[in-house]
Amino acid sequence: VSVADDDANISGRLVPFHTDYSRRTMQIPLNEENDYDGGVVVFATRDGFVYAPRPAGSYSVHTHPIVHGVTALTKGTRYSLFLCNTTEEGKGQFGGDRSTVREDLIAYLRQVVPSELAFLGPALSFLDGSSDDEL
């Protein structure tokens, strides 16, 4: 789990096209698109580029072979919450049972991002219940 803030005054840089190390990545925007300029998530597909809308509280999920990047952030600050599955199927990140790890994660997030938790529980359930092909 990672919370990222990209600030145009500090970075102003883009994220080049890449694939992720994690098997699955869920990205949740924490602020509205009109709070910043640029910072657009772009997926490279067989049919061309797909630009992902980012209303606060929505989410996008992709698997590790999906090529994507982010355009340069030119104004404002863009906040995101990232949930990344870097484990093998069925194994918890800390070697424990996945349900225990999930409960520990939710308890931690209740302290860090309380305003986002109404969305987090269903998002984790959706991610856990979906296969790579469905995503």
Can you summarize the main beta sheet? Answer: 5 strands, antiparallel
Mean pLDDT: 75
What coarse outline follows from CA principal-axis ratios?
globular
How many separate helices? 2
Number of β-strand runs: 9
User: Gap between N and C termini, in Å?
Assistant: 19 Å
Spans with pLDDT under 50 lasting ≥5 residues?
90-98
Order of helices and strands: EEEEEEEEEHH
Rg, Cα atoms, Å: 15 Å
Which structural class do you get from the secondary structure elements?
Answer: alpha+beta
The percent range for helix content is 10-25%
Strand content: 35-45%
Question: How would you describe what is shown here?
Answer:
It is a single chain. This protein is α+β, with helices and mostly antiparallel strands. Helices cover 20% and strands 36% of the residues. It has 2 helices and 9 strands. The strands form 2 sheets. Strands 1, 3, 4, 7 and 9 form a 5-stranded antiparallel sheet that branches. It has a 4-stranded antiparallel sheet with strand order 2-8-5-6, with no helix packed on it. Mean pLDDT is 75; it is low at 90-98.
